[in-house]
């Protein structure tokens, strides 16, 4: 039906960088990427960064100045550039989007659709 696939996660040392990508596929009529979230073991899922359809971004205080969110609607992708990574950034990172799919007759709306997540581990 539709896929949101996160990639780019991995294991890095403190101070390192990673760039996460979220790619959408399927019979998509429209997509509005909403942002990135993360969830560490034993903790609730938390907001990392949001982005509006006009491109305005907001960040959690914990990542301000270190992370940058961006979208490329023409390519159906969203990215999260993560610099100066800290051990507390360790989590599974998820992308979220508002998607409208094309059907043989009409459309179907998926206003709060999540990817499967990608693991980010920051340790020495």
What is the helical fraction, as a range of percent?
Answer: under 10%
Q: Between the first and last Cα atoms, what is the distance in angstroms?
A: 40 Å
Based on helices, strands and strand pairing, what is the structural class? mainly beta
CA radius of gyration is: 15 Å
Largest sheet: 7 strands, mixed
Task: Tell me the overall shape.
Answer: elongated
Number of helices: 0
Count of beta strands: 11
Query: How large a portion of the residues is in β-strands, by DSSP E?
Result: over 45%
Taking pLDDT < 50 over at least 5 consecutive residues as the criterion, the unreliable ranges are none
Query: What number is the mean pLDDT?
Result: 95
Helix-strand sequence: EEEEEEEEEEE
């Amino acid at each position: 039906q539709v896929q949101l696939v996160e990639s780019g996660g991995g294991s890095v040392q403190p101070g390192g960088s990673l760039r996460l990508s979220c790619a959408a596929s399927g019979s998509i009529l429209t997509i509005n990427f909403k942002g990135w979230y993360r969830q560490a073991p034993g903790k609730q899922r938390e907001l990392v960064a949001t982005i509006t359809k006009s491109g305005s971004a907001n960040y959690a205080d914990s990542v301000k100045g270190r992370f940058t969110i961006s979208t490329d609607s023409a390519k159906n992708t969203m990215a999260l550039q993560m610099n100066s990574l800290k051990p507390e950034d360790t989590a599974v990172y998820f992308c979220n989007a508002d998607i409208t799919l094309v059907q043989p007759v009409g459309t179907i709306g998926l206003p709060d659709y999540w990817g499967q997540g990608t693991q980010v581990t920051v340790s020495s």
